[in-house]
């Protein structure tokens, strides 16, 4: 649980008493490999801070093919922000890629936490801005880089994902087929 406090303190300060109270709002949850944290059409009622493991955020496209939109690893947050905020059915799935340990906070507890510690509004705003910015950059790369350039960029910037994530999920995230991924990795492109 210290990891979440360290993460929060990168953005705002908390004294020991505040940190202890903040932690009381979170619950430890573990998930098996391939287990869903959120399924399409469910209302998202939790935000997850990843302690250990890797997750993916994905959709099933109109052809029934899974399209990975985002990954999450240690010290990252994952949720469907719109479903969480507006309590509407989600269009997304969140799945554990590896055995996963998280700290979760439900919507009611989240609102109570922000009411009690308004300075946490800044922390969560910065987390959301960082996440949104990363999504914008990903969209930029999808429209401006070739498939091979996207792979090499990902390999250079985030080599831990190349090692941890199954190839078909990585190919989906980079918007190309697993077969094309095999050709790139083999140097045949």
Q: Spatial order of the strands in the main sheet?
A: 1-8-3-6
Please identify the structural class as seen in this structure.
alpha+beta
Overall, the morphology is globular
SS summary, helix count = 9
Number of strands: 8
Estimate percent helicity. Answer: 40-55%
Largest sheet: 4 strands, antiparallel
The helix-strand sequence is: HHEEEEEEHEEHHHHHH
What are the key terms here?
single chain; 189 residues; alpha+beta; four-stranded antiparallel beta sheet; 9 helices; 8 strands
List the helices and strands and how they pair.
Blueprint: H1 2-9, H2 16-23, E1 27-31, E2 36-38, E3 46-52, E4 55-60, E5 66-72, E6 77-78, H3 81-86, E7 93-96, E8 100-106, H4 107-116, H5 120-144, H6 147-157, H7 159-164, H8 167-173, H9 178-185
Antiparallel strand pairs: 1-8, 2-7, 3-6, 3-8, 4-5, 4-7
Structure description:
With 189 residues, the chain is an alpha+beta fold. The protein is globular, with a radius of gyration of 18 Å. The strands form 2 sheets. A 4-stranded antiparallel sheet has the order 1-8-3-6. It has a 4-stranded antiparallel sheet with strand order 2-7-4-5. A hairpin with a 5-residue loop joins strand 4 (55-60) and strand 5. It contains 9 helices and 8 strands. The chain has helices at residues 2-9, 16-23, 81-86, 107-116, 120-144, 147-157, 159-164, 167-173, 178-185, and strands at residues 27-31, 36-38, 46-52, 55-60, 66-72, 77-78, 93-96, 100-106. 23% of the residues are buried. The mean pLDDT is 94.
In short:
This protein has helices at about 1-10, 15-25, 80-85, 105-115, 120-145, 145-155, 160-165, 165-175, 180-185, and strands at about 25-30, 35-40, 45-50, 55-60, 65-70, 75-80, 95, 100-105. With about 190 residues, the chain is an alpha+beta fold. It has a four-stranded antiparallel beta sheet. It has a four-stranded antiparallel beta sheet with strand order 2-7-4-5.
């Amino acid at each position: 649980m210290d990891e979440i406090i360290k993460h929060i303190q990168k953005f705002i300060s908390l004294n020991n008493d505040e940190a202890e109270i903040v932690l009381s709002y979170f619950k430890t949850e573990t998930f098996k490999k391939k287990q869903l944290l959120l399924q399409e059409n469910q209302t998202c009622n939790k935000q997850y801070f990843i302690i250990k493991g890797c997750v993916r955020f994905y959709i099933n496209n109109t052809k029934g093919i899974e399209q990975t939109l985002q990954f999450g690893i240690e010290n990252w947050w994952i949720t469907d922000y719109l479903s969480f905020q507006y309590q509407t059915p989600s269009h997304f799935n969140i799945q554990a890629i590896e055995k996963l340990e998280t700290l979760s906070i439900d919507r009611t507890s989240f609102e109570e936490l922000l009411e009690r510690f308004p300075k946490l509004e800044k922390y969560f705003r910065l987390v959301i801005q960082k996440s949104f910015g990363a999504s914008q950059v990903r969209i930029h790369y999808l429209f401006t880089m070739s498939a091979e350039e996207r792979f090499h960029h990902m390999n250079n910037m985030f080599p831990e994902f190349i090692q941890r994530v199954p190839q078909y999920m990585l190919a989906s995230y980079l918007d190309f087929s697993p077969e094309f991924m095999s050709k790139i990795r083999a140097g045949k492109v």
